[in-house]
Design a protein that fits this description.
995 residues, 3 domains, 7-stranded mixed beta sheet, globular, Plavaka, Transposase domain-containing protein
Length: 995
C-alpha cells in the first residue's frame, strides 16, 4: 500500500495512465497474436496436432492359418519439434546466457585429502562422457565451429486436472541440464518446456477389440495397444530432424554472439514406476520388475549385501542385439503368424525377463549413438521412498499398533504425539495432520515430515521387546533418506550412503522376518474401504453387489517390491548423473501445478488447445519483462526460497522494537521466579563484556565489580518478535532461519506471557574450550530477543551503542546418554533442576548462534509436572527430555556428520567427518560369500538359438514348438493386491513440493 501511495504522489503520475479492467481484457486478446519486435524472436510456439497410428494384432481368424492386423488411429497428439524448441530456447530465453557449455569436475581439499564432488548434471560422469565423445568425433565437412553438448532431461506423467471430473493431461516436459538445478528445479523459474500432450486410447478401441475370437484376449491386447501408442508417440517426438541433430548437430548462435554446433543428448527421463516400465518396455511387477537389471522378485530382499551388489552389475539390462532380435522374433509371430498376445508362445519367451513385445522408440532412433535407454531412467526418491517404501513401512507400523490391545488407544496415542510435534522453519516441518493413522490426503512432503520425527513418536509404542529395534530401523531409514536427498555429495558421503544401505537392508530383513510376524496385522479400516471401492469399480453382479468380502484381510510385510530394490541404485546413479534433486520427479509434479492453473482458465471444452494458447503467452511476457529490466528475471536468486534481505550479515533484528519494558519493574514483578532471579546481574555483566570486547562464557559473572559503570539508556529493554539468522549451507548456498521468542512481553505491564510462536524458539550454539557437549553443540530456548542502548562511564568516549542480545534458558546433555550413528539414537537434552547458581539462564550474542534447531519432546518419559512453575516453562511443566532432531533438514544433518563444503567455519559443525565403514563390517548376511552364478547361466541361450534358427528369412515362418498356443486367461492373482496398493502410492502427490 505504501508503494501505491508513493506512486500516486509522484509529480509525473497521471490518473489516465492507470489501466482499467477492460484494458487488461484487450491486452489479453492482443497477446494471443503478439509478435515481439525483438531481435531474433520468432512468433508462435510451433505446436502441431497429428494422428498416431498403431497396429493391433488380431490373432488368427477362423479358417485362416496366418494372423490378421488392424490399423487403429489415435487422433490429437499435440506436440512440437524438439529441435525447433532447442533453437528457440538458446536464441531467445533470458536464461540461456547462464547455461554451462563446458562440463567439468568439482573437487574439494580438506586436511590434505582431495575428494570429488557430485551435484549438478553438468559435472556428472554421464555429461562428461557425452562431451568427450562428441569432441572426439571428426568435424562436419567445411565446419570449424566449436562443438558443445546440450543435456536434455525429460519428465512425463499423467495427472488429473481437477478434484472432480475425469479430465486428464499426460504431458512430456523438457528441461536443459546445462542450466543450474537451483534455478531449473524451481517452479517459479519456469525452466521447463512442454513438448507433447500424449493422448489416451479413445473409447472406440473397444469396437476393434470386439472382433477378437476370444474374450480372454481383450484386456492383454488393450494393454498392448497402450504400450504401442506410447512408443509411437516417442517416435513422433524423436523425428528425423532430431535424429539428424543427434548425429550432425545444429548450428545455433548463442547470446554471446558466437555460433556453435550443438549436439543434443538425452541424459535422463524421469517418471514414476508404471511409466518407467512403459519407457523400458517391461511388465510392471513382473518376475524381473526392475527397468535397469534382471533382478528377480525373490532376490530383492538381499538389498545391501555383496551378492546383491554383484547381481546389479552382472544382470544389467542392456539394449543389445539379443534383446532386439528377441523382440523382433516375437513380434513377427504376433503380427504375421497370429500368435496370441498372452499365449504360451509369448509368455515362454518374454515372461522370464518381464519384457513386453513392443519395439522401443529410443532404441530404434538413438541406439546407434550409444544411448542405452535403461541408463537414462534414474532413481525416483519421491515415488520410491517418500510415498513408496517409507509410506508402506509407516502403514505397517499402524497395523501393528491396531493389533495390540487396545488397538484404538495405541493409535490415538500415536496421533496425539504427531499433533504435539513442534513445527520448524518456514515450512520444513509443518503442523502434522490430526489423524496421521488415517493417511488421508497426505502429500509427499507430509510423509517426509513424518519420517523426520517418527523416532520420537514411536518410542515405546511397541512394547519393551520390539520398540528399541523399531526406533533403530526408523533411525537408519531417516539417515538413508537424508543422504539420498543431499544436494551436494562427496566421495565420503557416498561411501557412507553405501554403508547405510547395507545396514538398512539388514534392519528391514530383521523387521520382516522377526518383528512383523510377532503381530497379527490386518487391513486398517481405510484399507478395507479402499479395497471395496476398487472392487466395486471392476466387479459387480447384475444387482450391483460387490463380489468381495468386507472383512479385513491379513496383511504381511514383504520384501519383494521394485521400490525397495531401487534403494541399492542410488549411489551408482548419483556418481553417474549427479544428486537426486537434479532429476527428481518432484520437478515434474511441481510443474503440474502450472498445468492445473492453465486448465482453470479454459472453458473445459477442447481444453488442451486452450491450454496451449495460454502457454504461448508466457514466453512473450517473459521476454518483454527481460528486455525491460536488462535481462534479469524477477524470482531468480542464487539462494534458497527464503532469500535474506542482507545476506552478508550474520543475523538481522529489526531497528524498531515491538515493545519496551523497564528492567527494574520487570525484575520486581517477577521476583519469585527463578528465571528472573539473576536477570539484572547477568544482563549487566553480558552488556559490559560486549562493550569491552571481552569473551563472555555465561557460566559466571565476568565483571561483577564493574557493573556500576554500565549505563543503559532509561533502564529500558527493547523487545523484538523475530530474529533472522543467515547461514551458509553445506552446499554453499545462503539460507535463513527465523527465530521467535518463547515469551511475549506486554507493553503496558511489567510481565510477559508465553508466545503463540514458541515452537520456533530453540537454537544451537557451538561449544567453547571450557564447554562440553556429547553432540558437539549447546542448545537453548530463546526467552526473549532484546536490544539495549548502553554506554560505560569512565571511558574516553561514552558513545551509546546498540547491543543485541538473546535471553535464553539452557538445555544440558542427559547424563549417560549417547546419540549418533553408532547407537542409532538421537542426542537427548533436558532442563536440569533449578539451583541457586545462574547456570540455567543467561544471555548470548545473536552472532554466536549457529542455527535454529528442532527439539521434539520425548513423549515416552512424560512431563515434569512436579518442578516449580516458571514463565520460562510450559503451562503443565516442561517435558523431562527432548530429542535433538539432526534429520530435520539436510544442512542440519551435515553439521553432525561433518564434511559440508559450505561449513568452512569449524564452529558451525559438531565434529569432523569420521570413517564409519569399520563400524559395520559385521552387518552383511551369512550368504554373502556365496559365489554368484554368471548372468549367462540365467538365460536359456539354447532356447534362444532354437528360436533364431527357426526363423526363415525368405519365407518368414517359424517352426512349431509342438505346444498348443492358447491364451493364458487366468488372472495374475498374486499381483492384484500389490497393484491396488501401488495405485494408492500415486495419489495426493505433493504438487507444492518445494525445497
Amino acid at each position: 500500500m505504501a508503494d501505491v501511495l508513493k506512486l500516486h504522489q509522484d509529480p509525473d503520475f497521471q490518473a489516465s495512465d492507470v489501466p482499467t479492467p477492460n484494458d487488461f481484457d484487450k491486452l489479453k486478446e492482443k497477446l494471443k497474436d503478439y509478435e515481439p519486435p525483438l531481435p531474433g524472436l520468432e512468433a508462435g510456439e510451433g505446436w502441431q496436432s497429428v494422428t498416431v497410428d498403431i497396429s493391433v494384432p488380431m490373432g488368427k481368424q477362423p479358417g485362416s492359418q496366418i494372423g490378421s492386423t488392424t490399423k487403429f488411429s489415435v487422433p490429437h497428439l499435440h506436440h512440437r519439434s524438439i529441435t525447433e524448441l532447442i533453437q528457440k530456447i538458446i536464441r531467445t530465453n533470458p536464461d540461456a546466457k547462464d547455461f554451462h557449455l563446458y562440463p567439468f569436475e568439482e573437487y574439494v581439499t580438506r586436511n590434505d585429502a582431495t575428494e570429488r564432488l557430485f551435484g549438478e548434471l553438468y559435472t556428472s560422469d554421464a555429461f562428461l562422457d557425452e562431451f568427450r565423445k562428441v569432441r572426439a568425433e571428426p568435424p562436419e565437412p567445411d565446419c570449424n565451429l566449436e562443438k558443445i553438448v546440450l543435456g536434455l532431461q525429460f519428465w512425463s506423467d499423467a495427472t488429473l486436472l481437477a478434484n472432480f471430473g475425469t479430465h486428464k493431461l499426460w504431458p512430456v516436459y523438457m528441461y536443459i541440464g546445462n542450466q543450474s538445478k537451483y534455478v531449473r528445479a524451481k517452479p517459479t523459474s519456469d525452466g521447463g518446456w512442454d513438448v507433447a500432450y500424449i493422448p489416451e486410447l479413445p473409447d472406440d478401441i473397444e469396437e476393434v477389440l470386439q472382433q477378437l475370437p476370444t474374450k480372454s484376449a481383450h484386456q492383454p491386447l488393450l494393454t498392448h495397444c497402450r504400450r504401442e501408442l506410447f512408443q509411437n508417440v516417442l517416435l513422433q517426438l524423436l523425428d528425423e530432424d532430431f535424429y539428424n541433430a543427434y548425429k550432425h548437430g545444429m548450428v545455433i548462435e548463442f547470446p554471446d554472439g558466437i555460433k556453435r554446433r550443438v549436439f543434443p543428448r538425452i541424459l535422463t527421463w524421469s517418471a514414476d514406476y508404471p511409466e518407467k516400465c512403459l519407457l523400458a518396455t517391461i511388465r510392471e511387477n513382473g518376475r524381473c520388475p526392475c527397468p535397469r537389471c534382471f533382478i528377480k522378485k525373490s532376490e530383492i530382499r538381499n538389498l545391501g549385501t555383496k551378492r546383491d551388489q554383484r547381481m546389479r552389475l552382472q544382470r544389467r539390462r542392456k539394449d543389445n542385439s539379443w534383446r532386439r532380435v528377441m523382440i523382433e522374433s516375437v513380434r513377427r509371430n504376433l503380427y504375421i503368424f497370429g500368435k496370441a498376445i498372452a499365449g504360451q508362445f509369448v509368455n515362454k519367451r518374454l515372461d522370464e525377463f518381464s519384457m513386453t513385445p513392443n519395439e522401443n522408440a529410443l532404441s530404434q532412433r538413438l541406439q546407434e549413438f550409444g544411448l542405452d535407454y535403461h541408463e537414462i531412467l534414474p532413481v525416483d526418491l519421491l515415488h520410491e521412498i517418500e510415498i513408496g517404501e517409507w509410506k508402506r513401512l509407516l502403514l505397517h507400523f499402524i497395523r501393528m499398533l491396531y493389533s495390540r490391545e487396545p488397538g484404538d488407544v495405541w493409535v490415538e496415542q500415536m496421533n496425539a504425539r504427531f499433533r504435539a510435534i513442534p513445527i520448524f522453519g518456514k515450512d520444513t516441518i509443518r503442523r502434522l495432520p490430526q489423524n496421521v493413522a488415517g493417511m488421508k490426503r497426505l502429500a509427499a512432503r507430509d510423509y517426509e515430515d513424518i519420517l523426520q520425527v517418527s523416532i520420537t513418536v514411536f518410542e515405546d509404542l511397541f512394547g519393551t521387546e520390539h520398540s528399541e529395534a523399531i526406533t533403530k530401523l526408523i533411525y537408519v531409514m531417516a539417515e538413508w533418506h537424508c543422504l539420498a536427498k543431499l544436494r551436494l555429495h562427496s566421495d565420503s558421503t557416498l561411501k557412507h550412503l553405501d554403508t547405510v544401505t547395507t545396514v538398512l537392508g539388514k534392519e528391514l530383513r530383521n523387521f520382516a522376518d522377526k518383528i512383523a510376524p510377532s503381530f497379527n496385522t490386518k487391513e486398517t479400516v481405510s484399507e478395507t474401504t479402499a479395497r471395496a471401492r476398487q472392487r466395486e469399480k471392476n466387479q459387480k453382479t447384475l444387482f450391483g453387489q460387490v463380489l468381495a468380502s468386507s472383512a479385513a484381510r491379513v496383511k504381511k510385510y514383504t520384501l519383494d517390491r521394485y521400490k525397495l530394490h531401487a534403494l541399492g541404485d542410488y549411489t551408482s546413479t548419483i556418481r553417474r548423473l549427479g544428486t537426486t534433486d537434479s532429476y527428481s520427479t518432484y520437478i515434474g509434479e511441481a510443474r503440474h501445478r502450472i498445468k492445473k492453473q492453465d486448465y482453470r482458465k479454459t472453458n473445459k471444452r477442447k481444453f488442451k488447445l486452450q491450454m496451449m494458447a495460454t502457454k504461448s503467452r508466457h514466453p512473450a511476457i517473459s521476454q518483454i519483462d527481460a528486455s525491460a529490466i536488462g535481462g534479469h528475471r524477477p524470482g531468480h536468486t542464487d539462494g534458497t526460497n527464503n532469500e535474506p534481505l542482507v545476506p552478508h550479515l550474520r543475523y538481522d533484528i529489526s531497528k524498531r522494537a515491538d515493545s519496551t519494558f523497564h528492567i527494574g519493574s520487570f525484575v520486581q514483578a517477577s521476583a519469585t521466579d527463578r528465571a528472573v532471579k539473576h536477570f539484572k546481574s547477568q544482563l549487566s555483566d553480558h552488556v559490559l563484556c560486549r562493550l569491552r570486547g571481552i569473551p563472555y562464557s555465561g557460566n559466571s559473572l565476568e565483571l561483577p565489580q564493574d557493573c556500576s559503570a554500565l549505563r543503559i539508556q532509561n533502564n529500558h529493554i527493547h523487545c523484538h518478535p523475530t530474529m533472522r539468522l543467515n547461514y551458509t549451507t553445506y552446499d554453499v548456498r545462503r539460507a535463513t532461519d527465523h527465530v521467535k521468542p518463547y515469551l511475549k512481553f506486554n507493553r503496558k505491564a511489567p510481565h510477559c506471557q508465553r508466545s503463540e510462536t514458541r515452537d520456533r524458539s530453540t537454537v544451537m550454539l557451538s561449544t567453547s574450550d571450557n564447554q562440553q557437549s556429547s553432540s558437539g553443540f549447546l542448545y537453548a530456548r530463546v526467552l526473549g530477543i532484546f536490544h539495549v542502548l548502553a554506554s560505560e562511564v569512565g571511558r574516553t568516549t561514552q558513545e551509546i551503542k546498540r547491543i543485541d542480545l538473546l535471553w535464553v534458558k539452557w538445555f544440558s546433555d542427559v547424563p549417560g546418554w549417547k546419540g549418533g550413528w553408532e547407537t542409532r539414537r538421537l542426542d537427548r537434552v533436558w532442563f536440569p533442576p533449578d539451583s541457586e547458581d545462574m547456570g540455567n539462564y543467561g544471555f548470548v550474542d545473536p552472532a554466536d548462534v549457529v542455527r535454529a534447531c528442532h527439539l521434539p519432546p520425548v513423549f515416552s518419559c512424560g512431563e515434569d509436572a512436579e518442578r516449580q512453575q516458571s514463565i520460562a516453562s510450559d503451562e503443565g511443566g516442561d517435558y523431562k527430555f527432548y530429542d535433538v532432531n539432526r534429520f530435520v533438514d539436510r544442512d542440519m544433518y551435515m553439521r553432525y556428520f561433518g564434511g559440508g563444503v559450505g561449513h568452512v567455519d569449524r564452529n558451525q559443525v559438531a565434529r569432523t567427518l569420521v570413517d564409519t565403514a569399520d563400524n559395520h563390517n559385521g552387518n552383511l548376511d551369512e550368504d554373502e560369500d556365496d559365489e554368484d552364478e554368471d548372468f549367462e547361466d540365467q538365460i536359456d541361450f539354447e532356447r534362444l538359438d532354437a528360436i533364431l534358427e527357426g526363423v526363415d528369412d525368405e519365407e518368414g515362418e517359424v517352426e512349431d514348438d509342438g505346444e498348443e498356443d492358447e491364451e493364458d486367461s487366468e488372472p495374475d492373482c498374486d499381483r492384484e493386491e500389490e497393484e491396488e496398493e501401488d495405485e494408492d502410492d500415486d495419489e495426493n502427490i505433493d504438487n507444492d513440493y518445494e525445497d
